[in-house]
Amino acid sequence: MKVCKFGGSSVADAAQILKVLEIVRSDAQRRVVVVSAPGKRAKGDDKVTDLLIACAREALAGRDAAAAAERVAERYESIRADLGLDEGLVAALREELAARLAADRSHPAAFEDAVKALGEEFSARFCAAAFAARGLPAVYVDPKDAGMLLSEEFGSAQLLPESYDRIRAKLAPIPDVVVFPGFYGYTASGRLATFSRGGSDITGAILAAALRAEVYENFTDVDAVYPVDPRLCPEAAKGEGIREMTFAEMRELSYAGFAVFHDEAVMPAIRAKIPINIRNTNRPDEPGTMVLPRRRSVPGRVNGIASSGGFGALYVEKWLMNREVGFVAKLFAILAREKVSIECMPAGVDSVTVVFRDEQFPDAVRERVFAEIEEELHPDHMSYTRGIAFLVAVGEGMRTTVGTCLHVVTALSRAGVNLQMINQGSSELSIMFGIREVDLKPAVQALYREFFGS
Ligand code: ASP
After folding, report:
1. pLDDT tens for each residue of 298-340
2. Which of 52, 325, 347, 348 is most buried, most CB within 10 Å of its CB?
3. What value does the mean pLDDT take over residues 98-114?
């Protein structure tokens, strides 16, 4: 049995929903379909979720939300008309939206969640109706009836662990195709709560884990995960995507803002060891990228290269630092007090560099940290450098291949990119290279050509 999740662009209009229907129909194993709210139909278009949030905020500000609500209804009306569905569906949406906008606002975040979840609810209701009208027996299942229990953290709720057994008991066996809205569930007290934005991926992963699916298919609008960020290297978008990667590789790659989906979103599937297949709704014959607990084969050295700017490096130097027990611990404690989360820490005998996301280190924080370091650690020198980018070469094959680093360094030096830091983790699954942000593009392009170019 397969659980498939279709993102916003896959259900953005009637034509897209019909593609979804054909995909589901073409494989009898596709029994559970999770959908997002309709997304953008083209550049500049609105996502239904954003329209709903605008409605909720109008109401919370005490203004009339009728015009904003009408934009939502119009979006669904055009889908309904193009699919030839019953007019009652849009009437029900209008009524429900008006009721939720008129509900109690004493808890603004809970109020907003109830409004914004309507995007997914009606997306799923429409899809189930469209499937059934075209001869594919399908039912809409509400997260409440399926036992999807969430914490009271409105806007970023977490699944309560007992949900797995409840979902399994309520949903299995599955006679008709189940169409399930992504993004939300209910708290123990019966209030609607949503996951964080993009949370339909989480719903899909939870259902795949609860129902022990053979695979979790995540349909989006790209053919595969590319080995480097195609925004930095357009050539990569025309080349081959990654066929297979392991969960561990995915974690390393998504670390630097790489992934098609947020890796945390698919944690339920990963914990349950359910393979994830990232596929394209618009090109369903493409095999996409498989994310597996283990790879069958590990050809080549590098499977993908993540890249991200926006880092800063705090450098602290002290003569005979290596003999001073607890030096680094004290440095970490100072940073922890300021809630600075550390990415890596290349060190020398008498110096240490701590790298983190620069956004965590505004001037006021930097001044406090410098003062505390001065007082507690008495360094000989310290400095902070912004504008650092990281390249992370990832591949299970690196453990058994000699010379990956050499290849990276050679390619970068040919491209005239100066390396500021190198850090290889003990798992030997990835090597991080620190460079200047301004060198990011040429560096990524050089590495793409080195490892993946024809
Ligand atoms: N519709 C929600 C959002 O835009 C959830 C999702 O699409 O996954 O964030």
Report:
1. 666 788 999 999 999 999 999 998 888 999 999 999 999 999 9
2. 52
3. 97
| Integer Cα distance of 251 and 253 in angstroms | 5
Give the mutation target among 200, 207, 219 for probing the ligand 1 site: most ligand atoms within 8 A of CB: 200
Mean pLDDT of 55-67: 95
Please state the atom number of ligand 1 nearest to the C-alpha of residue 197.
Answer: 9
For ligand 1, atom 2, name the residue with the nearest CA: 198
Report the CATH superfamily, name and number, of domain 2-221: Acetylglutamate kinase-like (3.40.1160.10)
118-133 helix and 88-101 helix, angle to the nearest 10 degrees = 170
Give residues (CB < 6 A) around ligand 1: 7-8, 36-37, 47, 49, 119, 182-183, 197-201
Q: Ligand 1 pocket: which of 116, 183, 192 to mutate (most atoms <8 Å of CB)?
A: 183
- Mutation test residue for ligand 1: of 52, 120, 180, 192, the one with most atoms within 8 Å of CB: 120
Q: What is the pLDDT of residues 15-58, one digit of tens each?
A: 999 999 999 999 999 999 999 999 999 999 999 999 999 999 99
Buried b (16+ CB within 10 A) or exposed e, 378-390: ebeebeebeebbb
Residue 256: band (very low, low, confident or very high) from pLDDT cuts 50, 70, 90: low
Contact 446, 411 (CB under 8 A): yes
Q: Where are the domains of the chain?
A: 2-221, 304-451
Q: What is the pTM of this model?
A: 0.88
Distance CA 10, CA 316 (A): 50
How many residues make up the chain in this entry? 454
Least Cα distance to 39 among 178, 177, 225, 219 occurs for: 219
Q: 94 is written with which tokens?
A: 């209008």
Atom of ligand 1 nearest to the CA of 183: 5
Provide the CATH number for the domain formed by 304-451 in this structure.
Answer: 3.30.2130.10
C-alpha torsion sign, points 291, 295, 299, 303: positive
Q: Is the dihedral of CA 290, 292, 295, 296 positive or negative?
A: negative
